[in-house]
Amino acid sequence: MRKWPFVVGGIGLLGALAFLPWFGARRTRGLHSVMPAPPPYVFPRDFLFGAATAGHQIERAQPSDWTAFEQEVMRTGRFGTLGTGRPKPGHIHDLGRWPDEVRRAKTNHDALYAQDLALAAQMGHNAYRFSLEWARLFPKEQMEEADPQGVAYYHGLLDAMERAGLTPSATLFHFASPQWLWQERGGRRGWERDDALRHFERYLRAVAKHFGGRISHYCTLNEPMVYVYNGYLEGVFPPGERRGDPSQVAGVVAQLLRAHALAYRILKEDASRRGRSIAVGFTQHTRAFHPYRNWAPLDRLTASLIEQAFIWDFVDAVHTGTLRMTGTQQRQEIPGLKGTQDYLGINYYGRFYIKTSILHPLRFEILMHDPDDPSEPRSDLGWAEYPRGLLEVLAEAQRRYQLPLYVLENGVADAADDDRRRQRYLVAHLRELWLARQRGIDVRGYFHWSLIDNFEWAEGFGPRFGLIRVDYQDGFRRVPRPSADLYRRIIRTGITHEMLQAVGLASDR
Ligand code: FCB
């Protein structure tokens, strides 16, 4: 049960509306849009096609909060879960089952990146989303300059991207931060420390200085609301807090907004000194939030408030310069924030259902799939698939902000050998993306999550998201899945009738 009382705070009266009848379409129909034209669905030449990863999930452990969390989990044997796709606070599912070397090296990407990126190139990609790790560049607090080994590592990685013809898209904060930042200072830890932004600025200046001439796409923050929600409310990510009242996380949200604005300013100033044009934005985790019962107004109302709180509040803040947290009294102007996004990143992972109770109007459940509908397609993590939602989210983002959009993550946990679910998922979502472009939505790139199988945070190594399988039993051997080749063909020819047929979507038009 997930509770976000702040979202529904003050709307108890409206609960009475739930008694009114309200009818709607059955949800398992309409998973896909009706296409206006027959295939092929072709993308423009300059469209960015690639895959996404994050350093901590694929690379050798750095001295970060996540590494410290994993070590603590190992020490205390906290390997539990609350169920499929429901992480248990303070635990990492099945972490103890994996050999030390896997836990430390993750996928051994440090040693294998040239091979991984060459594979991406063979798969027809022209771009690659990866993350720089703050803890790799600043493993210790008292460092004026970035660690030379860290700098050399990223130059090596960028060289490999260049050789492979991949345009780099670099994320600056993808959930992990240096462990030293979590030493308490003045009663505060991590992002809430008074000096956090000064340290972040040092990291940003090092990034600009060393790599500013080589990177033209930056994503400052990955999914800030997932970070805040999982780390400060649910306790399933470091720092593992459960603050209970969402207005108590406003300080973290505001600080992340300041960090974003700072990154935008420093990177843009550096680029203009170099006479380069760069795009700086951030990416948001999105889902289609739907009422569990279409006829229940309280489900509908709560779903739309959660969508606003979880997806749009943060983007609105960057758009307007003022943070207003839905369902709380929090309202703060953040100097220098307004308009600091050249694009908006969309990570899209399917549909959630919101179920309220008229007896407890301030509580609600978030369901990851419809428990009453076994025919609903869902991933190994129990996440309901809803391809049309990608179009809906893109359309909403366009309507609100009129910014260029990039899908910076979209993918599915599918460990099955035949890889059929992933193939269908890929075709279905890219078809929605084609339709979005057709409708004039300015989407400029698609990055599949993920290039290779990896460490899925509190879910451990179980979920398999890779276009390329990693054989952890056999020296981290890379084995491309059939969807890797399907993606290559889509990039080359667009989505054809044969492809739709092969994945069972031909009749959906
Ligand atoms: C996103 C994260 C990414 C990965 C996918 C499955 O929320 O950004 O690191 O864990 O989910």
Quick summary:
With 509 residues, the chain is an alpha/beta fold. The protein has 15 helices and 13 strands.
SSE map:
Elements: H1 5-8, E1 48-52, H2 55-58, H3 65-76, H4 100-105, H5 109-122, E2 127-131, H6 134-137, H7 148-164, E3 167-173, H8 196-211, E4 217-222, H9 224-233, H10 250-274, E5 279-291, H11 297-320, E6 322-324, E7 331-333, E8 343-357, E9 360-367, H12 388-401, E10 405-409, H13 420-438, E11 443-449, E12 468-471, E13 477-480, H14 482-493, H15 497-502
Parallel strand pairs: 1-2, 1-11, 2-3, 3-4, 4-5, 5-8, 8-10, 10-11
Antiparallel strand pairs: 6-7, 8-9, 12-13
Beta-D-fucopyranose (FCB) is lined by residues 54, 57, 222-223, 226, 285, 347, 409, 449, 456-457, 465.
Describe the protein:
This protein has 509 residues and is α/β, with parallel strands linked by helices. The protein has one domain (5-502): TIM Barrel (Alpha-Beta Barrel). Helix content is 37%, strand content 17%. It has helices at residues 5-8, 55-58, 65-76, 100-105, 109-122, 134-137, 148-164, 196-211, 224-233, 250-274, 297-320, 388-401, 420-438, 482-493, 497-502, and strands at residues 48-52, 127-131, 167-173, 217-222, 279-291, 322-324, 331-333, 343-357, 360-367, 405-409, 443-449, 468-471, 477-480. The strands form 3 sheets. An 8-stranded parallel barrel has the order 1-2-3-4-5-8-10-11, surrounded by 6 helices. α5 packs parallel to α7, α8 runs parallel beside α10 (250-274) and α12 (388-401) runs parallel beside α13 (420-438). The protein is globular and about 60 Å long. Mean pLDDT is 94; it is low at 1-24. The chain binds beta-D-fucopyranose. Beta-D-fucopyranose is lined by residues 54, 57, 222-223, 226, 285, 347, 409, 449, 456-457, 465. The site of beta-D-fucopyranose has 12 residues, from loops.
